[in-house]
């Protein structure tokens, strides 16, 4: 059924061929034939286990309490949602099931099925119901309901879809818990970005003198005061992050480099692997070389990275999903 829906989705009258469907390349190729064979022998995905319905989407669907991972079946709320949708398809749902049972799709069937399925998921009430089932609440996180409410308010004002602008909005919202979460993220992110930027740059500095590396770091030590919230006592790698913050704030490039490389070495030791970067005889030895990273200009220094966001904290995806419930109403 997962494969079949990919072909149906690709056949939508409105922008179906431009959809970001997993396996779209193979699906397009096969749709040029009069018949398409369905099943494990003709997969659309290179790794169905990790990328398919029971792979990539499983954790999110389980947290939304729509499926049971261990038994690979729908929960009661999942059954209710699925029944609500399949009942609206009427005879088209029966046809889809028959096609799956036969293991073969006649491509001439797609246009009629696509029209009915597009009407189903294009219906604003259905989209809202599905979006709310996915992200409107969570028994394990009381803040999620408030986050969904504020996301809807944010989106109806047609504000920018982005992690940083949404966090800026949450810092000013009327929910004190969300304010704290948003501020914590805004304080942590510059530290993560800076550490990642330096490490990525180091991957391109094989055989360079360590003293030269230190000098280049020191030339850019103009950070705005960085901080890690003391309240986040269970933050992963907190000790390293606190140390790197102090050294960056002090402008100590030598100790910062040693701390960064030592932390990386400890991480790789836990993974039973060799460090990607280490110091050998006063030179940098890089096992995993990459020229993708670069440091900011000397004049701008590390302070220029303060507003850079590399991690979305799933907020960007949250906004995209929430937007689907109001997208058609806005048009």
Question: Can you tell me about this structure?
Answer:
The protein has 331 residues and is mainly α. The chain folds into two domains: 2-122, no CATH class; 184-305, no CATH class. 55% of the residues lie in helices and 5% in strands. It is built from 16 helices and six strands. The protein has helices spanning 2-10, 24-30, 48-51, 58-63, 76-89, 91-102, 110-122, 124-135, 143-156, 163-171, 176-202, 210-218, 238-250, 253-270, 315-324, 327-330, and strands at residues 35-37, 67-68, 73-74, 104-106, 277-280, 283-286. Strands 1-4 form a two-stranded antiparallel sheet. Strands 2-3 form a two-stranded antiparallel ribbon. A two-stranded antiparallel sheet has the order 5-6. A hairpin with a 4-residue loop joins strand 2 and strand 3. Helix 9 packs across helix 15. The protein is globular, with a radius of gyration of 25 Å. The chain starts with a helix and ends with a helix. The mean pLDDT is 90.
Attribute tags:
globular; 2 domains; two-stranded antiparallel sheet; 331 residues; mainly alpha
Shape category: globular
Tell me the Rg in angstroms. Answer: 25 Å
Taken together, the total number of domains comes to 2
Uncertain spans: none
Question: What is the string of helix and strand elements?
Answer: HHEHHEEHHEHHHHHHHHEEHH
